[in-house]
Amino acid sequence: MKWQDELKKNITTIDELKKYFDIPEDEAKKLDEITKVHPMSITRYYLSLIEKPSPDDPIWRMAVPSVDEFVQIGSYDTSGEQENTKLTGLQHKYSQTALLLATNRCAMYCRFCFRKRLVGLPNKEILRRLEAAANYISKHPEINNVLISGGDPLTLPSEIIRKLLEMLWNIDHLEFVRIGSRVPVTFPMRITDDSELIEIFREYSSKNGKRLYLVTHFNHPKEITPQSTEAVQKVLNAGVIISNQTVLLRGVNDDPKVLATLMRELVRIGVVPYYVFQCRPVMRVKHHFQVPLVEGVRIVEEAKKMLDGHSKRFKYAMSHRTGKIEILGIIDDEIYFKYHQAKDPSNLGKMLKFKIKPDAGWLDDFLEESEAEITCATTT
Questions:
Q1: Domain extents for the chain?
Q2: What does the pLDDT read at residue 117?
């Protein structure tokens, strides 16, 4: 069976889900209402990882709608993607990096997705013309790398992926390209069953002095299976370097032992721990997935105590509208941050400190309500 045919068998309705798990009728009706706002799509492979139909199961929690999604606190654009869009499907927030939104489709629709506004829904944010994107990048020599994201680019046909890479490899000032994909985690047969994709990876892994990277997204040790490990190994054997971005999620990995085990397992299978991201305050996500920053610092630091140098190379960070901000830690009653990347280059490397607020989950939570913009002034 081709991988495209398998994706067509995804579980996309609550009635289909009830064929696998017992779900009370009153709850099923509520979940069905959620799917009308934010679609559900779960691969049969990922569904097989669920041990029990309960929010206590981390796989269930990440894949299956929850009544908590009725809570509409938060924003659908927490990092200012709209203001950084230069043309349809192309964002340019940081000087050196262009972001391409290649598709609005994923193999599975994660319930914590920070792009819930577009994934699986009709929208006008996806890249329409490759030539226009290439032209923009060509005219901006400060851009030395491109991140292909979405949705999940690896749900595109292999010939489209080849066309994308060929287009980018023809731009001289680009040095590397990243593909952001959760496919190795949620649908590894996309990689293991498609020799054409592996040949594309092999061809472009280090072609003409440029490097190809795959940035994937393991959140829990249960996601590291023989199938996902095989997919990772095939990509590595093709010469592509793989790094991982984990999101700190309540009820999934907000336990130091779980987080430490995940990082050790990633290193074991050859994946580089890259970031642990603070869950964004996304509408229908923040209420039940976001961990307060004070708690997040404790979890991350306790996890690092169990890890060796290789497995604790990741940074604990947040993707804020003003930049990528590292969450450094707590001293006495103050929490410290540092701009790891910034929309305004003058902010790079600058630090901030604030009095601790126990329930604060985002940088904005430390600001006075009347303050419109975040400055880099040291604040107490």
A1: 3-70, 85-366
A2: 72
What CA–CA distance (Å, rounded) separates 266 from 59? 17
- How far is Cα 122 from Cα 104, in angstroms, rounded to an integer? 8
Q: How confident is the model over 305-314, as pLDDT tens digits?
A: 999 999 999 9
List alpha helices for the chain, DSSP H. 3-7, 14-17, 25-37, 44-47, 58-63, 130-138, 158-169, 183-186, 189-192, 195-204, 226-237, 256-269, 286-289, 293-304
Asked whether the beta carbons of 173 and 140 are under 8 A apart, the reply is no
pLDDT above 70 coverage of the chain, percent = 94
CB 349 within 8 A of CB 339: yes
Q: Assess contact for 228 and 236: CB atoms under 8 A.
A: no
CA distance 375 to 364: 11
| Per-residue tokens: 365 | 């939570």
What is the tens place of the pLDDT at every residue in 27-73?
999 999 999 999 999 999 999 999 988 889 999 999 999 999 999 99
Range scoring the smallest mean pLDDT among 38-47, 85-94, 118-127, 266-275: 118-127
The CATH architecture annotation of domain 85-366 reads: Alpha-Beta Barrel (3.20)
**In which region does residue 189 sit, left (phi positive, over 0), alpha (psi from -120 to 50) or beta (all else)?**
alpha
Residue whose entry in the numeric block shows the structure tokens 């049969």: 44
Q: Are 362 and 320 in contact (CB under 8 A)?
A: yes
Which helix (H) or strand (E) segment holds residue 124: the answer is none
Beta strands in 43-144 (DSSP E): 85-87, 90-91, 97-101
For residues 370 and 110, give the distance between their C-alpha atoms in angstroms, rounded to a whole number. 34
Pairwise CA distance, residues 126 & 135, whole Å: 17
125 or 202, higher pLDDT: 202
